[in-house]
Prior knowledge:
By secondary structure, this protein is of the alpha+beta class.
Amino acid sequence: MTTETFVRRRLSPLDFRRSRSATLAQRGLLRDARYQTGPQDCVQTAGPGPEWSNKPPVVASYAVIRLCEELCMVALLDTMPEGYCSLGTRQNLGHLGPIAVGAEIAITVRCVRARGRYSSWHVTVRDSHEIVGQGRTDFVAVHRPCYEANRLAPKRAALGV
Length: 161
């Protein structure tokens, strides 16, 4: 099977249940995106109090992590089986330089590990001057109805929700 065919083939839910070799992502899969930062990404708007408002007008780390996760999740959609979704399990991003609010950033994600429902991605974020972020983010694909019933329902019940 060629790489092109594999990447575009949507797996069935039974692929994960019947085979230990079914893999959601493919190692080497690459995605790039550009994003225009704005006031909604500014660290000064992250929360109340001087610990937020006294910071310089830079893009918040959580906003950069969200954008990196989003690009990985979009890449995983190509082969996501019906009823499944991806959940982040680890985010490790070194915020290496400031990103001025209003700057355009380029994000590159590359799958460096893929095994069954798990995938690990190397992420790089650049502005027009330098690499401003680099790290790794990991995902697992879960069957959403089962996940909600088995993992989330007991916690929601304990909260009375």
